[in-house]
Amino acid sequence: MAATARELREGLDTVSRALLRSASREGSKVDFLREVSTTILRFTGSTSLDLWIENRRVPYHWQAVSRPRRSYRIASLASGPDAGLWRRPRGDSPRSVTFLEHMLPLVGDGRLGASASRTPEGSLWLDEQAMVPFEIHGPDQGVLRLRRGGSEAFTARDVASCESLAHVLGVTIASRRAHAALTERVKELTCMYGIAQVAARPSLTLDETLQEIVELLPAAWQYPDIATACITLDEHAFASPGFRGGPRSLSADITVNGTHRGRVEVVYADRKAGDEDRLFDDAPFLDEEQHLIEGVAREVTAIIGRKHAEEESERLQQQIRHADRLATIGELAAGVAHELNEPLGNILGFAQLAGRAPDLGAETRRDLDKIVSASLYAREIIKKLMFFSRQTPAQKNDIDVNKVVDDVMSLLQPRCEKGAVSVVVELAPSPPLVRGDAAQLQQVLVNLVVNAVQAMPAGGTLHVRTTHDSEMVRVTLEDTGVGIPPENLGRVFMPFFTTKDVGEGTGLGLAVVHGIVALHGGSVRVESEVGRGTRFAIDLPSTSTTEEDA
Fold first, then answer.
1. pLDDT means per 10 residues in the chain (550 residues)?
2. Euclidean distance between the first and the last CA atom of the chain, given in angstroms as a whole number
3. Which residues contact 36 (CB under 8 A, 6 or more apart)?
4. Quick check: do 5-180 and 394-550 share a fold?
5. C-alpha to C-alpha distances, 195 to 180, 201, 405, nearest whole angstrom
6. The whole model's pTM is what?
7. Which fold has domain 394-550?
8. Which CATH class is domain 5-180?
9. Do 124 and 130 contact (CB within 8 A), yes or no?
10. Please, what sign has the CA dihedral across residues 96, 101, 106, 107?
């Protein structure tokens, strides 16, 4: 560096501008360090450069050699080759000279500390090497060591130039960190904006939404080329391409309404050749990335809540539409039943009266018997229509639902045994009483049990249980039969809807069930899976609830 003072100042200005420009260039940490090392080595004429950088996350050591062969090395001071010498107490003075003195054992040259020259700025130099401390930002500091080959020793003016250069280097590293932090923040905001856009698309199902979100996550992390992500919800995993669990992972729980439902996880792939710029050993993730993944988990939780609310709203809308259709059909059925009752009664009465004539032939008597039988069958259908349309008054008393279940199952046990159906009855102890007509509730259970037996032509299991709380008693019947196709579930309570062959059913059994339960102020729901069985749940209000309503 034999140059005039003016040439030296101009050279320092040029190098300083080059260093500061490198702070805003895209690239990895190693790319940045290679660039600044090359600039400094060329300006100072040194053969090697060492940087010890103090960092609250991962303090590290960087080495660049220009002669005889160019090489680079980076290692964590907390867990790398120098880890055993990294002992700086937290209470140390923040002065640069303290950090430099702390780093002297890493140099491996006792002479430098004992006999080296010292500048007012705290730098040390001896012969062909110089160590210069510098500040970066806040408590973080660094030490620059330069070495020369041969007999070219450092002079006081050389060390002063190195101090100026080290000061610019500290500003450059701080700028680089700020630029990197801004880049990471932009990536985080881009990720959250992308998630918001996905969440705003109503056409997507929950599964499609989660899959699109998980594919946005890797790009938001510090090393997107090796980052993979996975969202787990109720044991169902949605993963980005190439996801595989590993030790370098960051996760946040998904909790919906106080219940743990899954988690969001980001994992860095195993280290490969060329990963020397990633100081994974102690802190592979930024503090900001922990906040980001927690924000993603909160957003996913909100999306799940909204999707569930939308599904529940749609389910309630379907129930309202279904109830409205049933009410309309019920009014129609009531009108038809009233209109048919009188002429049907006349037909039945005159047929029975004609059958008493003493001089009827055998064939005529048989025809009259058929008329009477058909009229009685039609009257039963009308009675069921009246039940469905809630036109038949109930004789309401306080009823023990357990006794109703016991009576019905005792009556139908032989039929179940004949059909090779095993019956399991579980009755809740001391359920509250319900207000209703025991005969009508028995008819409800009879219809459901008969349907269940018919749905198990090769035999199976019928599980009948009662449960309750302070306001409601529930009767559940669950079979292992053929099930109901999804397209038929919404129509099972409609009158005259049946999947049975002609002559095997009127399609009024479940319509009557719905009408009677509704007449008692209750509700009935059905769930079914083809090939696995059907479950009916009847909820009846307890007497305490009906008294409060009254």
1. 72 90 84 92 90 77 86 75 51 51 60 73 84 85 86 84 92 89 86 91 88 92 87 90 83 89 87 50 70 90 86 74 62 68 78 81 83 78 60 73 89 87 92 88 87 90 92 93 84 62 51 82 90 93 67
2. 102
3. 19, 22, 169, 172
4. no
5. 23, 10, 52
6. 0.52
7. Heat Shock Protein 90 (3.30.565)
8. alpha beta
9. yes
10. positive
